Amino acid sequence: MTAGENSVQNKKSIADLAPLEAVLFDIDGTLCDSDPLHHYAFREMLQEIGFNNGVPIDEEFFVKNIAGKHSHDMAVIFFPDDIPKGLKFVEDKEAMFRRLASENLPPIKGLYKLTKWIEDRGLKRAAVTNAPKPNAELMISKLGLKDFFDVVIIGSDCERPKPYPDPYLKALEVLKVSKNHTFVCEDSVSGIRAGVAAGMPVVGLTTRNPKNLLMEADPTILIKDYEDPKLWAALEEVDQKVGSSKTSA
């Protein structure tokens, strides 16, 4: 067993949160498999400007430098000497992404099974993202989740975006719930770190990012998608704890 695996096993489990009050979700790569669209848009546009001597960026570069990052951080990578130009580039890329996403945006497998579980138990829920607001609104709408979320927290509306805890702390505040009864679903190192820093257990999804990379951010559990038996075993434990506490009461 690696040190990383050992630390995950020693962390607070999802079942320890019972009774659950809320579930917080990232959007890109967590609600939908959108990273291939982002990768494609960046690859095409970066080639046009001759980035990396015109050699297309590969998935490793995308995961290391782009996935889960805030617009300003990406602008610094591509145009370190001209941040306004970098921000405009990222803005244009996001417009390209929205055109692609409006045509095809597959949900993460098992997503609607989990959203039904959450609704059936009357839990509060928020989407918490570093994505620009137009992207967030488009993806939530395309996935049919406009009425599902109580609130959408945008990283740029907070003092500091992910990987800082601010967006998740703001979600807790707006929903009026405790971090001791809330968990986070995330797919990137940046996002997992933000949830952990906010004091909550994080369910990490291996949608596109390598497991070993995600483990460095210290998630509570790692799952392939929302049909993963590990997730449902944890949620069943939550239900059992709530049931036994009601019985003893």
Descriptive account of the structure:
With 249 residues, the chain is of the alpha/beta class. It has eleven helices and six strands. Strands 3-2-1-4-5-6 form a six-stranded parallel β-sheet, with helices on both faces. Helix 2 crosses helix 5 (83-101), helix 4 (71-78) packs across helix 5 and helix 5 packs parallel to helix 7 (133-142). The longest helix has 20 residues, at 229-248. Residues 1-10 have low confidence and may be disordered.
Task: Describe the SSE topology.
Layout: H1 3-10, E1 22-25, H2 35-48, H3 59-65, H4 71-78, H5 83-101, H6 111-120, E2 124-129, H7 133-142, E3 151-154, H8 166-175, E4 182-186, H9 189-197, E5 202-205, H10 211-215, E6 221-223, H11 229-248
Parallel strand pairs: 1-2, 1-4, 2-3, 4-5, 5-6
